[in-house]
Structures are given as structure tokens and as C-alpha cells.
């Protein structure tokens, strides 16, 4: 099944495509203040089992952010994704590149300080749970400095933990060409709360030799379409509320 993501229908303005002089002279890039609201996908580069790509979290965050920016319309500008995050729990697998919580916090702070020189607002759309601690700290600091910055996450109620049914379904919807269907195998489907003690000591590798928490073999395109729509609807709703009331700490 093809999606609007593949065709990039009603694509929003994208920061990387613009020139500096054209950025603030194009009405479509301006909100009521005359400057853009910058929406920044935040993901990770980490293992997602034998069947999903290392950029899964970044890919999902980018697709959600693009769809949200297109829905919200004029004044919402999509930034290139930040593709490295705090992924220490996946260090036992090749391909994982984690910069850790403190480095990520510093990157987000400096990103916000710089971008807010010309953007009226800044919001991070997060695709990786390990980034939350850094996001909370960075956004809190930026707001105490007087910058209008917020964050939100790509959420699915009842989702499994990692590279299982949920993420695999979403990738089958937005990027089916990168899913290695023949390599799908069930992972450890125990509740995350039960796995956390072992994971704190030895990372994901301590509870799943293949790095999968959940069952990707049950994933479907239709479920992925529904999950993706829920992510976009939830992020758009939270961002509209944010712009209306000015609260920076989103979930």
C-alpha cells in the first residue's frame, strides 16, 4: 500500500531545501509573528533486530513530523532530522551509535539557542524513548532562558517495546522497501517491567539475542497505517494545544 508519506503530498517547507534569503521572505514559511515554527525530528541510530534498519526511529519521527507540519500548514517548517540519540541500551549490537544523554542534552540546547535566533518557536518530535531524559532537561533549560521550545513523542497506545509488532507495522506502511520480511522472528515479549532489571545491567542484548522485544511476525500494513495515523493525530493535537497555551513540556 502506498501512503501520502511516499508521495509527499502537500509537503511542508523543508529547511534543508531553502536558501537563507528565501527563508523569511516566503509567506508559507511564516507564522503570525512573521517567522517560522521549526519542527525537528529526533531519532537514533541503533539496532532494530535483523529485519528493520538502523534509522527506524529517525525514519518514523521524520515521517510523523512531515505529516504534522503539512497538516498544520503555513508557518510550520520541517528541519533535517537529528539522527543520533541516547541508545546505550543497544550498545551490544553492531551499527548502534549512541552519543549518550548528556551529549544529546547539550546538542539540543545549542540547537535551540541557535535556531531560535530566527525561528519563533521550536518543537522536537521524538522517535526514541531513550532520548526523553535529555529532552526534558534541554527543553526546560531553553524555556528558562526565554525561548519558546517544546517537545512531543510519536506514541501508540499499547505498543510493544522494540522492533516488534508496532514498529514493524509502521515501517511496512511508510517504508516497506526497507523491511526484511524474511528475517522476521519473534523476540522476547515479556512485559518491559519484568525485563528492566536485566536490561539495566546488560542492555537489550541481555534479554534478546536478536535485539527484538515483541513479535514482528504479526505486523501488518493496515496496523501500520492505523498506528501512523494515531501518531500524527496525537502529535498534531498536542502541538495545537501547545501553540495555544504556551506549555513547553509535552509528551
From TrEMBL:
Its cofactor is Zn(2+). One of its GO terms (biological process) is riboflavin biosynthetic process. Residues 20-53 are annotated as: Disordered. Pfam families: Creatininase. GO terms for molecular function: hydrolase activity, acting on carbon-nitrogen (but not peptide) bonds, in linear amides; metal ion binding. InterPro entries: Creatininase-like_sf, Creatininase/forma_Hydrolase, MftE. The keyword Nucleotide-binding does not apply. It comes from the Bacteria. Keywords: Hydrolase, Metal-binding, Zinc. Residues 27-36 have a biased composition (Polar residues). Belongs to the creatininase superfamily. This is Mycofactocin system creatininase family protein. It comes from Mycobacterium adipatum. The lineage of its organism: Bacteria, Bacillati, Actinomycetota, Actinomycetes, Mycobacteriales.
